[in-house]
């Protein structure tokens, strides 16, 4: 028991010391580094840290904690960051359900939250807040863009599929919103499902001419492998969440030919992106995913605002963030009235790379200047 | 687990009578005092975070006190107590949601309005968790051993999947509680006040379990665990005894869940997941199975490990696993066995 | 009609996948009376070893052999260090210790191999599909999984009923003290059986991993399903595991497909898909609860 007490005292002392340093900017990153979906968090963190290192600023301190993909732990970590470490800015959350647990309370307590990934509809709409910025996308963006693209390409009878949870139903709703036509069938799978034989049989039995699916992480890997094995001959479309560089390497040849929408591609031709992709490969020895790009952009957004104001001056700092005065690796980037991006969404195709491994190749722009539909519900 | 009958039939020093004379009493009072005084000190030094951390420990401990009644005293190894923890949480969340929206929770046949009063929520959480446990227990207690472990898990999984995919209350996204629910004359938004509410809840749960185990009912429950044939020969059917204990256990865990949702300002299906059931079991074992204060010691240790290791390394679960393994293998009687010595007669 | 038959085959196929996993679990419980939550970890170990070895050697078969061997070796090691201390402990301790093992294995694997999923595909010869009698096209690899599942079932039946080891296993199931008295080295027998169970999990991980995502935590969803299977079938019974697996596979598959279709008679397609799949997700747990309510020891209780 004596040990417990001394541990407690130790914690109190470190806090007291930390509070003594002034003017430094503290950023608390809560992200998913263990359990399911951890490669997303690792990439967000690595991209973010790359930008911080490159800035050469030694007055910015980034504290990183693992949320283990658990909302209650994320919530507790956010309290730890705000109440103990007194961070100025929070960031890092990967999954929408964790963002919903943390963000509303955090921003109301006067902390800035900059999202590097999750963009649930509520935070873009009726629960938007002046201290909340999303540097990645609103969840519907990529799905809607693919709907528009497929319509434009002349597909008339798509089957659409997603897991039965809020992000899944949102994805299909977002798709239908911009597809603006009837779909042959809507299939909801189960969270964490690993076998898709039944769904594949159902898709084959329908008279669909194309398939759009949203199955993030391991679910997408399982599905794509089984899809190829089943020999169904139908073009496949999705959002980048099922086709990041790490996932398609795990899927292998089965991914080749699939089209996906993304807000960024590593072969996007602009100076900031060249510097980022090269730097990331050098630092970590792998090709960055869109999550790494989002982490990198999030850090650069924050750094650009820090050039102009310290977060203690809330109004000035908020105004500086709104200007989004940085070179985004995705090209043009600006914020809408609800602090969510207005941006181009690209189409990529999975092709066989020079090393024989599948990789994404930029095809073109699916939708220019896409903006979420929820901004009309946002009163700020 | 096989303890002589005499131990539990004799009056046990529980909470109200915890004496200053023996080591166990000292440890028990010490643990409670630590849990009470540390956040008090932190609060007056201006470190609100530690107050909330202590509230978290307290509530996890309280949930485990409930589970301990089933596992430790009743010998019913429930792998599904997350169901009650989560249901309690959802009662708080759903009620607050409707109170906020001014819509009824149930519109028909009679309109039940939402409420943001903690008293109403607690009552509802206790009653609903009790009813759920009555149904689940009535079916599950027909089985024993591994089957009981697995059927309780199955029921919890059913509720988990339901909550995950039912969109009305947020599905997997969960349900935020914007304003902490209220109590008359108390500012529940204040971290210290809320901690004291949680602490009172924990002390009452401990007192209740201690009281139960000293009663004739407690003696019968112990007998049902050790030798139910003998209990049956004494003219008492073990099944209803176990069922009642199971229901009370779920009620305590459910109340802790309702408070936990208020602490986080948030409830989600994670509170219902099998990992949560596992964690509650871990806490019971860490502390020492069937020890009144075991869950308290287990919860303090578990939350501290989670917080400290999580800050040190992203592979903290690996070390958590190692510690758990060592405790199960070598510290048979948990932290309480180590701090306070084994139970007498053991 | 063809669709119904195809879905029945899919259910059967899912059932054999589950059986591969459940057989080892139920064997270990039957002989040693041990609940092993870490069984899913051996599944993951098997898949990882197969993926890594087949990536370096370029041969799926070599990878498969390695996967089984590594899973067996890890299983034996875990038995020697940890598991053998648990045989005389209550189920509660077993659940906890093996829960801790899950954490150690998952995070240890992530530490060693990173958090990215690995590449593992069926060999080229087994990819693609064939036309079955009746004009139904079906993936070859899934047929192979069914075949392997049947082979394992037959193999285990022969092993247990015809060999000396099987005799000892049966003796161990019915009377643990007795076989010790008869001069059988129980410690060695237990290590062997545990390694066999782990090898079966490794085989399942390697075979099924080729159709799924090889990543940390891949064993957890299938572990829970495997437990449902053996509890329905009667813990410790290989026959029960087989029937339980097929029952769960078929019910789950048909539920997933036909419940949304059923609800379409009452509501809009979107809603029907949502509600149907929500109920489908609960279906096997409902099945398990109903079966246990009427047969508290499962369908084919091996022993009390």
From TrEMBL, chain A:
Domain Leucine-binding protein: 24-353
Keyword vocabulary terms for this entry: Signal
Pfam families, per database record: Peripla_BP_6
Signal peptide as annotated in the record: 1-18
Family under the similarity heading: Belongs to the leucine-binding protein family.
PANTHER family per UniProt: LEUCINE-SPECIFIC-BINDING PROTEIN (PTHR30483), PERIPLASMIC BINDING PROTEIN OF ABC TRANSPORTER FOR NATURAL AMINO ACIDS (PTHR30483:SF6)
Entry protein name: ABC transporter substrate-binding protein
Organism expressing this protein natively: Billgrantia bachuensis
UniProtKB/TrEMBL annotation, chain C:
Membrane topology recorded in Swiss-Prot or TrEMBL: Multi-pass membrane protein
Entries under Pfam families matching the protein: BPD_transp_2
Compartment(s) of residence: Cell inner membrane
PANTHER family cross-referenced by the UniProt entry: ABC TRANSPORTER ATP-BINDING PROTEIN, BRANCHED-CHAIN AMINO ACID TRANSPORT SYSTEM PERMEASE PROTEIN LIVH
TM segment ranges: 12-38, 58-83, 95-113, 140-160, 189-211, 223-251, 272-294
Alphabetic keyword roster: Amino-acid transport, Cell membrane, Membrane, Transmembrane, Transmembrane helix, Transport
Family: Belongs to the binding-protein-dependent transport system permease family. LivHM subfamily.
InterPro entries: ABC_transp_permease, BCAA_transport_permease
Name of the molecule in the record: Branched-chain amino acid ABC transporter permease
Keyword Disulfide bond included in the entry's annotation: no
Signal peptide: none
């Amino acid at each position: 028991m004596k040990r417990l007490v001394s541990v407690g005292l130790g914690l109190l002392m470190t806090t007291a010391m930390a509070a003594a340093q002034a003017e430094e900017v503290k950023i608390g990153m809560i992200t998913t580094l263990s359990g399911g979906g951890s490669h997303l968090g690792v990439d967000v963190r690595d991209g973010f840290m790359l930008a911080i290192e490159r800035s050469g600023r030694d007055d910015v301190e980034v504290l990183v904690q693992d949320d283990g993909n658990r909302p209650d732990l994320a919530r507790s970590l956010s309290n730890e960051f705000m109440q103990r470490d007194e961070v100025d800015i929070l960031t890092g959350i990967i999954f929408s359900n964790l963002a919903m647990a943390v963000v509303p309370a955090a921003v109301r307590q006067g902390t800035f939250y900059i999202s590097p990934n999750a963009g649930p509809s509520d935070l873009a709409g009726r629960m938007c807040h002046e201290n909340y910025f999303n540097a990645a996308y609103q969840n519907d963006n990529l799905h809607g863009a693919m709907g528009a693209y497929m319509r434009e390409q002349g597909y008339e009878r798509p089957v659409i599929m997603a897991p039965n949870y809020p992000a899944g139903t949102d994805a299909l709703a977002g798709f239908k919103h911009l597809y603006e036509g009837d779909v042959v069938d809507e299939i909801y799978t189960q969270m964490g499902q690993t076998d898709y034989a039944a769904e594949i049989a159902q898709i084959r039995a329908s008279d669909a001419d194309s398939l759009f699916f949203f199955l993030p992480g391991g679910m997408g890997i399982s599905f794509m492998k089984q899809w190829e094995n089943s020999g169904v001959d139908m073009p496949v479309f999705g959002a980048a969440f099922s086709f990041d560089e790490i996932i398609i390497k795990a899927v292998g040849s089965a991914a080749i030919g699939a089209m996906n929408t993304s807000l960024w591609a590593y072969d996007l031709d602009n100076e900031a992106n060249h510097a980022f992709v090269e730097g990331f490969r050098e630092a970590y020895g792998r090709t960055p995913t869109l999550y790494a790009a989002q982490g990198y952009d999030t850090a650069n957004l924050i750094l650009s605002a820090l050039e102009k104001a310290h977060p203690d001056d809330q109004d000035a700092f908020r105004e500086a963030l709104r200007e989004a005065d940085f070179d985004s690796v995705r090209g043009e980037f600006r914020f809408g009235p609800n602090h969510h991006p207005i941006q181009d969404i690209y189409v990529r195709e999975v092709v066989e790379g020079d090393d024989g491994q599948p990789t994404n190749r930029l095809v073109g722009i699916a939708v220019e200047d896409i903006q979420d539909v929820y901004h009309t519900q946002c009163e700020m | 687990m096989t303890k002589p009958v005499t131990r539990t039939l004799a009056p046990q020093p529980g909470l109200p009578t915890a004496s200053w004379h023996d080591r166990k009493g000292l440890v028990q009072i010490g643990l409670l005092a630590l849990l009470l005084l540390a956040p008090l000190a932190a609060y007056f030094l201006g470190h609100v975070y530690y107050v909330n951390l202590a509230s978290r420990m307290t509530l996890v401990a309280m949930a485990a006190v409930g589970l301990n009644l089933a596992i430790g005293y009743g010998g019913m190894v429930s792998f599904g107590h997350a169901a009650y923890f989560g249901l309690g949480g959802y009662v708080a969340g759903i009620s607050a949601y409707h109170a906020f929206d001014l819509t009824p929770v149930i519109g028909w046949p009679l309109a039940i309005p939402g409420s943001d009063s903690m008293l109403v929520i607690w009552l509802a959480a206790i009653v609903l968790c009790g009813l759920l446990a009555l149904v689940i227990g009535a079916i599950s207690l027909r089985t024993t051993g591994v089957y009981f472990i697995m059927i309780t898990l199955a029921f919890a999984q059913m509720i988990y999947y339901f909550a995950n995919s039912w969109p009305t209350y947020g599905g997997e996204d969960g349900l935020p509680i914007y304003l902490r629910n209220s109590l008359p004359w108390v500012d529940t938004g204040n971290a210290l006040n809320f901690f004291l509410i949680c602490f009172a809840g924990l002390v009452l749960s401990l007192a209740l379990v201690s009281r139960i185990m000293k009663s004739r009912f407690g003696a019968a429950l112990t007998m049902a665990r050790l030798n139910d044939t003998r209990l049956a020969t004494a003219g008492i059917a073990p099944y209803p005894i176990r069922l009642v204990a199971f229901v009370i256990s779920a009620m305590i865990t459910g109340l802790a869940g309702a408070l936990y949702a208020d602490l986080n300002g948030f409830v989600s299906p994670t509170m219902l997941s099998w990992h949560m059931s596992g964690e509650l079991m871990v806490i019971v074992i860490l502390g020492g199975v069937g020890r009144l204060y075991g869950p308290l010691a287990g919860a303090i240790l578990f939350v501290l490990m989670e917080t400290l290791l999580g800050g040190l390394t992203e592979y903290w679960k690996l070390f958590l696993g190692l510690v758990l393994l060592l405790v199960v293998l070598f510290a048979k009687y948990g932290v309480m066995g180590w701090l306070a010595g084994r139970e007498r007669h053991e | 009609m063809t669709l119904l038959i195809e879905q029945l085959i899919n259910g059967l196929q899912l059932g054999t996948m589950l059986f591969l996993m459940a057989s080892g679990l139920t064997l270990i419980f039957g002989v040693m009376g041990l609940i092993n939550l870490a069984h899913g970890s051996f599944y993951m170990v098997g898949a990882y070893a197969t993926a890594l070895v087949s990536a370096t050697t370029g041969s799926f078969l070599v990878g498969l052999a390695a996967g089984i061997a590594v899973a067996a070796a890890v299983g034996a090691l875990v038995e020697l260090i940890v598991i053998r201390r648990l045989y005389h402990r209550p189920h509660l301790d077993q659940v906890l210790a093996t829960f801790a093992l899950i954490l150690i294995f998952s995070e240890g694997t992530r530490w060693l191999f990173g958090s990215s999923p690995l590449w593992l595909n069926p060999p080229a010869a087994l990819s693609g599909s064939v036309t079955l009698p009746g004009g139904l096209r079906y993936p070859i690899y899934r047929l192979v999984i069914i075949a392997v599942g049947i082979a394992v079932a037959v193999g285990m039946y022969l092993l247990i009923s015809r060999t000396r080891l099987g005799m000892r296993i049966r003796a161990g199931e019915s009377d643990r003290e007795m076989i010790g008295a008869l001069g059988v080295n129980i410690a060695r027998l237990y290590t062997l059986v545990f390694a066999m169970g782990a090898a079966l999990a490794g085989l399942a991980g390697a075979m099924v991993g080729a159709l799924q995502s090889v990543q940390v935590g891949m064993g957890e969803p299938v572990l829970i399903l495997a437990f449902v299977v053996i509890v329905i079938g009667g813990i410790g019974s290989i026959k029960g595991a087989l029937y339980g697996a097929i029952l769960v596979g078929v019910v789950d598959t048909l539920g997933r497909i036909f419940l949304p279709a059923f609800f379409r008679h009452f509501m809009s397609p979107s809603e029907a898909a949502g509600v149907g799949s929500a109920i489908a997700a609960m279906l096997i747990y409902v099945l398990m609860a109903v079966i246990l309510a009427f047969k508290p020891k499962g369908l084919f209780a091996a022993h009390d």
